[in-house]
Write a structure and sequence with these properties.
It is built from 3 helices and 2 strands; from the N terminus they run αααββ. Helix 1 packs across helix 3. A hairpin with a 2-residue loop joins strand 1 and strand 2 (75-78). A two-stranded antiparallel sheet has the order 1-2. It has 80 residues and is mainly α. The chain has one domain (10-78): Arc Repressor Mutant, subunit A, CATH 1.10.10.
Length: 80
């Protein structure tokens, strides 16, 4: 589920969802804001795969573990 495979498309993988979230984080967003934005983009057809809140959390843990994001005053921000 982390990486795309023969049966999992890139947009459904955590790696694909992570690349999408990195574009949305910008100057910083709360977890709730990220979830709302991703759900709205799915409804508008801007992201091809519907993701659950659990997938969002797993993706944020993945991005944190590889040192791409961090938490600052309750906001998810990109590492410098």
């Amino acid at each position: 589920m982390i990486l795309p495979s023969k049966h999992i498309s890139f947009s459904k993988s955590l790696l694909g969802y992570g690349s999408y979230l990195l574009k949305k984080i910008g100057g910083g967003k709360s977890v709730d804001e990220l979830y709302q934005v991703s759900q709205q983009d799915y409804k508008r057809g801007l992201y091809p795969s519907k993701q659950s809140f659990d997938s969002l959390m797993l993706t944020l843990v993945f991005l944190y573990s590889i040192g791409v994001i961090e938490e600052n005053d309750g906001m998810v921000v990109l590492c410098a």
